[in-house]
């Protein structure tokens, strides 16, 4: 009987050690999840700010393009995207300043085309960020699934703790029973 009690006690202690190890691991995982979640929130805030900034830049670019196009029409200038078009400069009446202005204008045409290419590239990046944002919502759904898994694990551990508590109560009752039996034997064996 005492051997069974010792075996039950060892089994109980082993279960308790295993449960404590699971609890420690759960706690560490919860800390990691919390850290990742806070980093994700920070990244989402930065992404929202970046999307707002990009949207503002696009609106300003559109307004600027409209103003420049109106000015070009008013001045009768050719289309800036035409790289081969040369602005007319009267060679006889041209001053060195006119030549410099024409060179500067050609440089501006070149820079403008590069800016338009950069704008196109920026639009591609915006599209990619939007796609990433959509995939982030899919990740948040998987996060919910992970939270459900953690909740299930916690529920299982709570059930295990209840089971261990129940078995502990049963073991205490058996120990008290054995103690009463042994006390009864000792009192009958001892001389009056």
From TrEMBL:
Keyword vocabulary terms for this entry: mRNA transport, Nuclear pore complex, Nucleus, Protein transport, Translocation, Transport
Segments forming domain Nucleoporin NSP1-like C-terminal: 4-75
Compartments in which it is found: Nucleus, Nuclear pore complex
GO terms for cellular component: nuclear pore central transport channel
Main location: nucleus
GO BP field: mRNA transport; protein import into nucleus; RNA export from nucleus
Keyword Transport set for record: yes
Entry GO MF terms: phospholipid binding; structural constituent of nuclear pore
Pfam families membership: Nsp1_C (PF05064)
Superkingdom field: Eukaryota
InterPro entries from the UniProt entry: NSP1/NUP62, Nucleoporin_NSP1_C
The keyword Glycosyltransferase is annotated on this UniProt entry: no
Annotated family: Belongs to the nucleoporin NSP1/NUP62 family.
Protein name: Nucleoporin NSP1-like C-terminal domain-containing protein
Organism from which the protein derives: Ancylostoma ceylanicum
Gene: Acey_s0303.g1888
């Amino acid at each position: 009987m005492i051997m069974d009690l010792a075996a039950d006690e060892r089994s109980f202690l082993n279960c308790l050690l295993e449960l404590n190890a699971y609890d420690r691991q759960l706690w560490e995982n919860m800390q990691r999840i919390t850290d990742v979640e806070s980093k994700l929130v920070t990244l989402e805030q930065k992404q929202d700010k970046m999307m707002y900034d990009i949207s503002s830049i696009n609106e300003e670019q559109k307004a600027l393009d409209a103003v420049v196009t109106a000015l070009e029409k008013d001045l009768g200038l050719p289309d800036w995207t035409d790289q081969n078009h040369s602005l007319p400069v009267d060679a006889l009446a041209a001053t060195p300043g006119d030549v410099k202005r024409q060179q500067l204008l050609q440089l501006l045409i070149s820079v403008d085309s590069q800016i338009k290419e950069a704008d196109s590239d920026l639009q591609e990046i915006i599209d990619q960020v939007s796609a990433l944002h959509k995939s982030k919502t899919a990740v948040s759904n998987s996060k919910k699934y992970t939270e459900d898994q953690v909740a299930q694990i916690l529920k299982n551990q709570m059930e295990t703790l209840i089971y261990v508590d129940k078995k502990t109560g049963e073991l205490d009752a058996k120990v008290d029973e054995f103690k009463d039996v042994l006390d009864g034997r000792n009192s009958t064996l001892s001389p009056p």
